[in-house]
Amino acid sequence: MKMKGKCVFTYQIPYPTAVTMMLRPRRESTQAIFNEGFIIEPTVHFTEFTDSYGNSCQRATLPQGEVKITSQVEANVLETPPLPNPLPPFVPIEELPDEAMLYVLPSRYCQSDLYEIHQLASQIVGNSTPGYEQVEAIRKWVHQNIYYQYGVTNATTTALDLVYNRTGVCRDFTHLVISLCRSLNIPARMTVGYLDKLEIMDLHAWVEAFLGDQWYPIDAVQEFTHGYRIEIGHGRDAADVAMVTQFGSMQLQSLDVETELLEEDPSAQPAQ
Q: Which parts of the sequence belong to the Transglutaminase-like domain (predicted)?
């Protein structure tokens, strides 16, 4: 299926401010990028680099006044598959690929080494078979026990905070699922991008867990993981996948996000 995603950030800036951005899509085998646009208004010079997680990033100094940043993409993507059969197994630490090891360790927002996190994970999974069955038990528990609400969490909220407060948004749901999985030695990372199945349209965050021999999407905001997705970036937690990081004073005035499913064009060629 061909999918379109677009986001527009509008800022009011009191003085020229340096920023890094992560707003262009990843080049992955699961998504073929056909059209892409990235515009800063008023026009300013920006440079691009690839971070340590393979995400495409941009750097610029934004001018004083109102600044609008627009990113859009069209890609051929596959629908999130249903639960695999047989369910992929747990991978022992000694058999994990090197690139997955980073995602077993605790990180800033995902304190998987804390007693409270491990105790909750053990209670949730019970006698579930190690692997996807445990991950799905965690996903369902978070979906059923955490209330989705804007405005109650902020940039300092961690997975442990959510254990006690039980209220947050997709970023918080994702941090908790990641922490619970890692406490059981299951690699889990945070992925951000576009999802076509959101009731309130926004940029979205979900989990990818490494099981068997690949990464699987896990979305605790949804009743079950489904829909079409365009991935912008992934990392250990929100600290690694911030869409815009500012090094000064900037006020976000608005963020507008759109997604649309389009007819797939078999003659189209991926953008380089």
A: 162-222
Q: Where do we find the tokens 């022992």? A: 92
Residues 64, 16 contacting (CB under 8 angstroms): yes
3-state secondary structure of 264: coil
Residue holding tokens 């309130």? 200
**Would you place residue 272 in the very low, low, confident or very high pLDDT band (cuts 50, 70, 90)?**
very low
Q: Which residue has the tokens 């990033």?
A: 57
**Helices 115-125 and 170-183: angle between axes, nearest 10 degrees:** 90
pLDDT in tens, 132-189: 999 999 999 999 999 999 999 999 999 999 999 999 999 999 999 999 999 999 999 9
In-domain check, residue 85: no
pTM to 2 decimal places: 0.93
Q: Are 248 and 128 in contact (CB under 8 A)?
A: no
Residue 170: inside a domain: yes
Residue 272 counted as domain residue? no
- How many Å apart are CA 216 and CA 189, to the nearest integer? 10
Paired tokens of 187: 């690699």
Q: What angle do CA 13, 17, 22 make, to 5 degrees?
A: 100
CATH number at residue 27: 2.60.40.2250
Contacts 24+ apart (CB under 8 A), 152-156: 155/238
